[in-house]
Amino acid sequence: MVLNILLAVLVFSLLVVSHEFGHFLLAKKNGIGVVEFSVGMGPRIWSIEKGGTRYSLKAVPFGGSCQMVGEDEEDDSEDSFNSKSPFARFAVVVGGPLFNFLLALILSVVVLSLAGINEPRVYHVAEGYGAEAAGIREGDLIRSIDGHKIVLGRDIELYFLNHPMDGTPITIEYERDGEILTTLLDPSYEAYLTGFSYYANEDRAVITEVTEGLAMEKEGVRAGDIITAVDGTAIGTGQELSIYLKEHPLEKDTPITITLERDGKNFSVTVTPAYQEANTLGMSATAYRNKEAGALAVVKNSFSEVRYWMSYTLTSLKMLVTGRVGVENLSGPVGIVNMVGQVVEQSKSDGALYVFLNILNFSILLSVNLGVLNLLPLPALDGGRLVFILIELVRGKPVPREKEGMVHTIGILLLMALMVFVMFNDVLKILR
């Protein structure tokens, strides 16, 4: 637990300091005075003053700050924040989120250099399902789905998160031996299901999703649990699980016993398959990694990784606003510590390199999240400040500072109330 907390603090501090460093650099560039740039919070344990700025290391190693001259108060001095042009202030405010995206890009280059790029290449086609009937084979490279361009393997998953399958045939464009082909895939099928998804690859058989209302969910199985055996037969990888289920198809009223691993501990559930009319592509392509990719491909795909996580964050927000997911799914610092612990536990059996890569992947997600969320047009966030700057550009004069300050104060109070709720919810989830 101590290690998990330290890792979470390190990750969170890296993201926040990167964000504040973006504000700092753009402030200096635009002639705005920076009173203090600090790493950590609380009382100073070390500091030095240079160029009119105090650089501080503080006692609590969590986050950081960039305090600019006249940022939250009336100050007409030449180097104050509010004395600068709207365009200069716009650049300073955007600098924080921009540096979160830049950090995510740098971390993506590291991850892809070590793990390979996430190509949308088919590595498994299930017998009897839509992909096989549509003529798709292992090794095909998916190029588009219903006209939507696919760059990363995970773009497929993201597309169907935004466009759930309803049984309507899907147009798939794919590349085989340099030739672009198009096919129509019927995703509908009838089967007996226990209600879980996984990647049929050479990694461990990690459950990626549990279907609400079906047997696995009723038995308390969660996404992230690892299947290690089915009816006493050991399962080492997702590919082995796929082969086993192909050789032992689920049958009506015939229960199966599944052994799983969670947080290093094993447990078993006995589930009875239920008849379902469902939809699936019948192929796996989202988790494929090309480890022979060159430097140019790594850099290009790193931009695609950042774009993917931006889209994923916006999709998650849309699902939250439309009610497809509830506010109980939000997580704060406590939840981040718990998730870091899960990442470490699930990865450590594969070695230190996998732990390192998965922590970096998690950091990429959080960094992009922080950047996107800060750009939302809400009071107290960077996006809220940008709204007032845009209003100033339209009106030709700024909104009275006291009114803007009042709006941001209300926003901070609401944000703190949300953080208390999220923290309470995180604790409840851990206790459960």
TrEMBL record:
Keywords: Hydrolase, Membrane, Metal-binding, Metalloprotease, Protease, Transmembrane, Transmembrane helix, Zinc. It is an enzyme of class 3 (hydrolase). The chain crosses the membrane at residues 90-115, 352-376, 405-424. It is a multi-pass membrane protein. GO terms for molecular function: metal ion binding; metalloendopeptidase activity. GO terms for biological process: proteolysis. Its cofactor is Zn(2+). PROSITE patterns: PDZ. GO terms for cellular component: membrane. Its main location: membrane. Its EC number is 3.4.24.-. Residues 169-235 form the PDZ domain. InterPro entries: PDZ, PDZ_6, PDZ_sf, Pept_M50_Zn, Peptidase_M50. SMART domains: PDZ (SM00228). It is found in: Membrane. Belongs to the peptidase M50B family. NCBIfam families: RIP metalloprotease RseP. This is Zinc metalloprotease. It comes from Fusibacillus kribbianus.
